[in-house]
Amino acid sequence: MDLAVSHEDSQILLKDKNVLQESVVDKYRTAGQITQTALKYLTGLINDLYHYKTIQRPMTIAELCLLTDSFMVTRLEQFYKNKVNERGIAIPTTIDVDQVSSGWSPEVDDTKNLLNWNKETTSPEDSLFSSVSGILKAGDVIKITLGVHIDGYTSEVSHTMVIYPVAVNEAGATVPAGPLLDVKADAIAATHIATETVVALLACALTPEKLPTSLGNVVNGQLIRLVVDTIARSYNCGVVPGSRVRRIRRFLAGQNEGIVAEREYKGVVWTESHQEAQLLINSDVKDLTVATSSTRSAPSAVPVDDFTVNAGEVFMIDLKIAPLGQVSKKGLITLEVVDSARGKSHRKDELVARAGLFVRDYAQAHALKLKTSRKLLTSIDNNGVYPFKLSHLSPNFPIDPTKDYDEQISALDKDLKSFRLGMSEIANNYLCVETPIEIAKWVPWDHVLKESNQNGALSYDATANLTLPGHEVPLPKLGIAALKLKSLVRSCPETIDLPVVRECTTVVLCDSDVSSGERPELLRLTGGSKTSQPSWIHSDYELNNEDPTVQGIFQLAELVKDKRFGLVVRETQPMKQTVSQGAAEETGMQM
Amino acid sequence: MPSKNSINRPKLTTNVRSKQQTLARKRDARERKGHFTLARSEEGSRSGEAKSAPVDLYFGRESPATRRAQPGRGGLTTKTLSKKRAKKIERNLKYAAQRRLLTDVQANSEGADDDEMSVDATGQAKAIARKQDIAAKKASKNSGSLVREALWKAIEDAGSQGLTLQTGNGTTLGGPFFP
Amino acid sequence: MSGVYTCNSCSLGFDSSQDQRDHMKTEWHRYNLKRRVAQLPAISELVFNTKVRALSQAESEDDARKRDEKKQLTKKEIRRREKEALLEKKKKLLALAQENYLKNKALAENQAQKENTEAEKEVKEEQTAPVVTEENVPTEEAAAPAVPDEELTEEQLAERLMNQKLESKVDIPLETCLFCTNESFKDFETNLDHMFKNHGFYIPEQKFLTDKEGLVHYLSEKIGLGNMCIVCNYQGRSLEAVRAHMLAKRHCKIPYESENERLEISEFYDFTASYAGYAENTKKTQEPSEVVADDGNDEWEDVSSDEENAEATEDNDEDEDDLPDEYLYNDGTELHLPTGVKVGHRSLQRYYKQNLKPERILTEGQGTLVAAETRTFLPAFDKQKYNVKQRAWKSENMDKKREDKRHAKFVNNQPYYRDQLLQ
Asked: Which DSSP string do the residues of A214-261 spell out, in sequence order?
């Protein structure tokens, strides 16, 4: 790595700029408002398309993503213009359907390709077909993820929606035909409750004396993991690897996880190794540490649960939960990276797609040969440090939905062609890393135990997707490396896809000096009751009140409802569509 | 002796090659005779111990190498043990027993807290200790299997299902509207 | 004259052989031998001695000086010097003529151009003569061989030369072609047109030209009076010769490349308009508009080699470099031109030619990522460490070889070895 930042500069960038001040909170709040508005815009579009059916023209996922990205960029234009150097999309809109866990954000020219590539492998009855065709169908669970940043202060959001079959009620309004009763409902319930509980837990970090005694006396990583795992288990669900509750800092909002080994990582992550440790918890195996010290990065970059949540920090709660109602055995929930290559080794039901999101790896340097690539790299470098889509680099972006839509799309198409040519060279030299499309898979434990060999730990997967430092080996106790696990998942006939539900929210822990009121408060930038209301579902499971942890969870919910003595949680509201200059409309909303 | 610049100076390569060939021939011969030592990992290996044909003969032990080379021949050997040699061995054994007795007494008097420093840890004893270590390590290497066993147990254990409860009314979120 | 021993060449007789031998060794005898070979009669010793004395005296006079000059100055060198001196003289004369012409012109303008040309010439003559006397001193040597038989002072000589020139002067009117013999046109413009079309006589920078007739008149005087080529300053013997030279060599243009050439005709131009335009230009656009490309400073290179400069060099004929000097300064390594262009010295050429990667300036986001990065990559190749290692390997190899050698010494150490060559 030929780049270096002086010690003083790094102190400023990592420490001083992350101190919560009025101006910083204001930037966070504005970013949160834009995110909320964009989420509202997209959910409105999807409702209009599939529920109210007021938009006749069918729109694919790619188009929805493009429209929402354009919306975010045009909204961003109105704020902090010429006041900050960098602002933009922190995570391009992704719309993941059912088992697709993350990263589904095709370009507009991908729609035709996807149908062509998956011609033989995917049938219209398949649950993957919604992703492939880009047209949703009733019963689909879709996860919308998007985010913006202003001067590096990032707000991200994920929300899960259900596409319902529609009915008309007595009042003549279009309503869902009924609640979702599927196993997916369990996961939606679990994710919603877990997210709200973790938000309340983080609020308790500001006032530790209010933390229920059954949960201990300090908010730390172990407690967060315990609470989330308990809720997931209560609803017969499992936490999907890649979920995390982590501190975010300026420009370090988890977008580079797996690429940059981030100094002073603070957060709870869920990986396969945690599922393994969970199983071994009652056995006589003593050493249950899941993270190994990574040889290639500093020890502080390895995510471990030994941390305490402090006031003045910003956290991102990103939970992905998969229901286990359709499986009878115990199994491992893992992620499979979707490959863009097609060949004879591909299974019948395997999805073929190429990643739409890329992240620049600034540690790599290489002199590119093609002029197109060099030009593209310059525009990537100017774009910022966050993930981007190729279409964002086009001069025809953002598109204006009020003007001639088809013409803009075709212009964008033309730009994308040359971008892809340049991108292949850039990606081949590791200057950019593509954010993988991941599919949640379930593989029974007995298959893993039967098949594994001893040398698994030594094998190296050149195609390994992004792993956190210290968590390179997915099953360290069994000694199964990523490559081995990949082949296990592929070889097992019992492997099934799991639908995934995802909720993500960004919260700022404001101490009393920056909070709007007297008391310290938790400012919830994204999500909440205005934009991220849960869909209508019914799950057969419920929380067991006898469990002390669950009791603590109930107490937390009470605390949030209590306005006078409880926890103060304020939510950032979406801007009104008509108001262009967003005067911060923000009301104290209680959970 | 030819000088360094002599025309007749023997060439290095040919010499080296002939030397290697000779060594190889000798090694072959030894192997054919069965004098080849066992690998250290093999069961009968007495690596680290003092090698002595007379001692073997005295104790009636057959050398492991001969046993491997000529499996059917039993303890047949061409080695002989002279009477004088036998006497010497006998005498040495006696001294060794005396020494051991002495060190035992010393160890007892010192509280037997430092095994490492015992004089008796001769080459033979050291080798035995090392072998035991290796065996222990081999056992611990199978901790993977220990994990595996624990995992099998956890999978088959129906009781560890957790807190899932299906008796209540269940959970309902949201309502009949599109959020 | 007695004795058996004689010398035939000197016709002498000797008593003893010793005497004869002594005589044979003398210079006189050798001289007479040479004379005899040349079939000349022998000379007596007395005559020989007087001759020798006279010669040695003459030699001792200009011995050292003459020998030195003769040896060091080759004929070619002498000729070259002479030529140079002549050229110098001619140039001076021409400068004088030019000066006088300008003076006269000013005078004539003041006196409303009443006087006729002859009166002008007289004035010129009167003014020229004293100046020439002052300035003709260094041309003495060159002038001397031209009129070796007459004893004239330098003043008189110059006067005579001038007179000769004036006598042979041919007035070329403005309507007549400068190069063709006796080709006249009805007016000045058609003449210029003819010269441009037929001879390529192009007047540069016509935009700023204020005195076209003056320029052409000056040139015609240069040809007619000075018999000089306008391009290469070739001095012809006559007008016909110089015209033939110009036509043959295609020297029918006004040289406008070097500083001196430009200065020579700068009286007829007025560039003040261009300065005003320059000032506006620099105010409006920071783009450098021109680059000096004069041969006097040709060891300067253009430093900021951008595309804009490349463009700028192409259209530099409009703006001139005769800008006030205060904008142009030299800080030792670079020459700062008023346009903002920096010109580097040729000695630093290798550094300007380097195509270094521009230093990357990280944005705050990139800086944050780099600061937060803890990944360790393979260490960069350290040449020093590698050299140390290489030395270690080398010594290892040497040790091994030495061991082998020592070992091989005793490989064939047989008790009864017999060397084959010693049989």
From this structure: GG-SS-BHHHHHHHHHHHHHHTTEEEPTT-EEEEEBTTBSSTTBTTB-
Q: Do B2 and C408 touch (CB under 8 A)?
A: no
Q: At CB < 8 Å, which residues of chain A contact C?
A: 1, 3-5, 9-10, 13-14, 17, 85-86, 151-152, 249-252, 256, 260-264, 296-298, 300-301, 362-363, 381, 384-386, 469
Average pLDDT over residues C230-259: 83
Q: Taking the mean position of all CA atoms in its chain, how far away is CA C344?
A: 24
Each residue of A26-44: b (16+ CB within 10 Å) or e? ebbbbbbbbbbbbbbbbbe
* Alpha helices (H) in C111-153, listed in sequence order: 117-135, 140-146
> Measured between CB atoms, which of A9, A250, A301 is closest to C374?
A301
Q: Hey, CA dihedral for A464, A467, A469, A474, is it positive or negative? A: negative
This complex has an ipTM of 0.85
Q: Show the tokens assigned to B174.
A: 């949201």
Higher pLDDT, C249 or C294: C249
- Which residues does chain C have within 8 Å of residue B12's beta carbon, measured at their own beta carbons? 404, 408, 411
- For the segment C252-266, what is each residue's pLDDT rounded down to a tens digit? 888 888 888 888 888
Say if residues B64 and B37 touch (Cβ distance below 8 Å): no
Q: Predicted confidence band at A30 (pLDDT cuts at 50, 70, 90)?
A: very high
Return the ∠ at Cα C301 (arms to C297 and C302), rounded to 5°. 120
Number of H helices, E strands in chain C: 17, 6
Q: Say which of B163, B168, B169 has its CB closest to residue A233.
A: B163
Of C360, C364, C377, the CB nearest to A86: C364
What is the reported pLDDT for A192? 93
Closest Cα in chain A, distance from residue B161 (Å): 9
pTM of the predicted model over 0.90: no
Cβ atoms of A553 and A66 closer than 8 Å: no
Give yes or no for a contact between A95 and A59, defined as CB atoms under 8 angstroms apart. Answer: no
The span from the CA of A64 to the CA of A59, in Å, is 7
* Interface contacts A/B by beta carbons within 8 Å: 114
Tell me if residue C269 falls in helix, strand or coil: strand
Select from C404, C413, C421 the Cβ nearest to the Cβ of B8. Answer: C421
Question: What are the φ and ψ backbone dihedral angles of C158, each rounded to 5 degrees?
Answer: -60, -40
Residues of A in contact with C370 (CB under 8 A): 1, 3-5, 362-363
Tokens of C250: 């295609």
